[in-house]
Specification:
This protein is of the alpha+beta class and 142 residues long. It has a single domain, classed as CBS-domain (Roll), CATH 3.10.580. 41% of the residues lie in helices and 19% in strands. The protein is elongated and about 60 Å long.
Length: 142
């Protein structure tokens, strides 16, 4: 059974401390990502912020992005998994909490990120492999 470590992103965009929302927006724009993990000085996730969070919790409410701190809109506390967790459990956890991203930690320190799109690709590939075994013609549909 595959684990989170087998599919996770290892190059994660993080921001340390409690910068302004605008500073985080700049990072998201510069790095061309959909979210950042907010970490403390020990690389422990303390929050996660997505583009959607910024739009709904700040832009829509006309918050001053250059003054307001990211801690006012980030999702916290952060639910995490360890790299040895199987992908099915991670997927279920994400569905139960309506998350699209799930940080992966070892000794509370951030080492990776599992996303909804990564899991979709993983499960699609697994389905394709299954169909190859039972009927190779069906596998070509994917």
């Amino acid at each position: 059974m595959d684990t989170v470590q087998d599919v996770m992103l290892k190059d994660i965009v993080t921001v340390a401390g409690n910068p302004t929302i605008f500073e985080v927006v700049k990072v998201i724009g510069d790095k061309k990502v959909g979210c950042v993990v907010i970490i403390n000085s020990e690389n422990i996730p303390i929050g996660i912020v997505t583009e959607k969070d910024i739009v709904r919790k700040a832009v829509y409410k006309e918050v001053d992005l250059k003054k307001e701190k990211i801690s006012t809109i980030m999702v916290t506390p952060v639910i995490t998994v360890t790299p040895d967790v199987n992908v099915f459990y991670a997927s279920r956890l994400m569905q139960e909490h309506d998350f699209r991203r799930l940080p992966v930690t070892v000794n509370k320190k951030l080492i990776g990120l599992v996303t909804e799109s990564i899991l979709t690709k993983y499960f699609t590939q697994q389905r394709k492999e299954f169909y190859k075994k039972i009927n190779p013609e069906l596998a070509n549909m994917f």
